[in-house]
Write a structure and sequence with these properties.
By secondary structure, this protein is mainly α. It is 73% helix and 0% strand. 27% of the residues are buried.
């Protein structure tokens, strides 16, 4: 298939629809996790939907530069995820470490203001920093689960599905982000976008599965 014939817009629209479905499914099963720290995750899902629709409208009708919407989304989402893993991690030492990671991420975001145009450019440095820190939180969480009796019912935890979805979508996207940033004129960029959309698709499918299969009452496990 020719690069020029890749249906990027159609794929993006399909992903938007899937994100709406994920938020609806998350709302339907909200009763499962409404008494845990994960209740804020539903707000994030709907924020993703609203933000993507507004950004799409903005790029079509106002300006082609809609990076500001995704830079704001970046700090909201990464801050939430880092706070989430700080909350569920049991080790006081690692809780403290997560606090430092949150601070370092916020510093990296501030630094990005001086290195990039907030309205025109995606903040790549803070994105990669936040991605690595979230992955660190996921690894710490899994290491604690694997060394506890909770491993038996691990697949019944919503946080388990969220962690899997984040891991498989964020980790491969780090090199993609670098390519989008520094090789923007490369003829392979459309393929990179499709790969990123595929990661988002995978994450949403995993989330939907998690909402369905997790226990009826989710608690702050650790």
């Amino acid at each position: 298939m020719s690069l020029n014939n890749l249906p990027l817009l159609e794929i993006r629209n399909a992903i938007l629809i899937l994100q709406v479905i994920t938020a609806i499914v998350g709302s339907f099963y909200y009763y499962k996790y409404k008494f845990s720290f994960l209740k804020y995750f539903l707000y994030l899902l709907w924020y993703i939907v609203i933000n993507d629709f507004i950004a799409l409208y903005y790029s079509k009708n106002v300006s082609i530069y809609n990076a500001s919407f995704y830079n704001i989304f970046q700090i909201v989402s990464f801050t939430y995820y880092l706070m989430l893993y700080k909350h569920i991690i049991q080790s006081l030492k690692f809780k403290k470490a997560m606090s430092y990671l949150i601070l370092l991420y916020l510093i990296s975001f501030i630094i990005s203001f001086f290195l990039d145009d907030f309205f025109k450019n995606h903040f790549s440095i803070s994105y990669i920093t936040g991605s690595l820190f979230v992955i660190t939180g996921i690894i710490i969480f899994f290491s604690e689960i694997l060394n506890s009796d909770k491993i038996i019912n691990m697949n019944k935890m919503l946080i388990f599905w969220i962690s899997i979805g984040l891991f498989v979508s964020i980790l491969p996207d780090i090199p993609f982000d670098l390519m989008r940033k520094y090789y923007s004129k490369s003829p392979t960029i459309p393929y990179i976008f499709i790969s990123s959309y595929l990661l988002v698709f995978t994450n949403n499918v995993i989330l939907i599965s998690g909402f369905i299969w997790c226990n009826k009452e989710q608690k702050d496990y650790l």
